Amino acid sequence: MGEAPPAETFEEIVEWAYSTLPQEIRDLPDFPGIQVADEPPEEMLKKANRPRGTELLGCYSGVRRTEGQHNLIRIAPDLIFVFRCPILRCSKGDLRAEVKRVVWHEVAHWLGHDEKQVKDLGL
């Protein structure tokens, strides 16, 4: 009897979600890094302005692509954070689809869409 294939790690699911983005977006030279973290930092939770009782599943930290300036001095790289524990707590069973939605949602913010526009895109 063969062994069951190993379960995907959360990081592998995030990598898969990244691979589902259109190639022309992934190829942009200023595409932000994607970082998996267990929980959002307290200061990020305070700045996120989330409705009470909701989880922060991901966050884009940086200057939106539409707001970038050639003379802007950056003190930190642009990053997309994907928060493992909140996603797992909120998961309804299709972890791949949920992680993909978070990654695409944060990429849409990086591309310049505000929260209403991101929701209108179905993300």
SSE arrangement:
Layout: H1 10-19, H2 23-26, E1 33-37, H3 42-48, E2 58-61, E3 79-83, H4 84-90, H5 95-110, H6 115-120
Parallel strand pairs: 1-3
Antiparallel strand pairs: 2-3
Walkthrough of the structure:
The chain is α+β, with helices and mostly antiparallel strands and 123 residues long. It contains six helices and three strands; from the N terminus they run ααβαββααα. Strands 1-3-2 form a three-stranded mixed β-sheet. α1 packs across α5. The longest helix has 16 residues, at 95-110. The radius of gyration is 16 Å and the shape is globular. The N and C termini lie far apart (42 Å). The mean pLDDT is 86.
Features:
123 residues; alpha+beta; three-stranded mixed β-sheet; globular
Strand content: 5-15%
* Major sheet attributes: 3 strands, mixed
Report the end-to-end length measured between terminal Cα atoms: 42 Å
Q: Summarize model confidence as the mean pLDDT.
A: 86
The tally of beta strands, per DSSP, is: 3
Spell the H/E element sequence: HHEHEEHHH
Q: Spatial order of the strands in the main sheet?
A: 1-3-2
Gyration radius (Cα, Å) is 16 Å
Query: What percentage of residues falls in helices of 4 or more residues?
Result: 40-55%
Specify the oligomeric state.
single chain
User: Tell me, what's the shape?
Assistant: globular
Total helix count? Answer: 6
Q: Uncertain segments of ≥5 residues (pLDDT<50)?
A: none
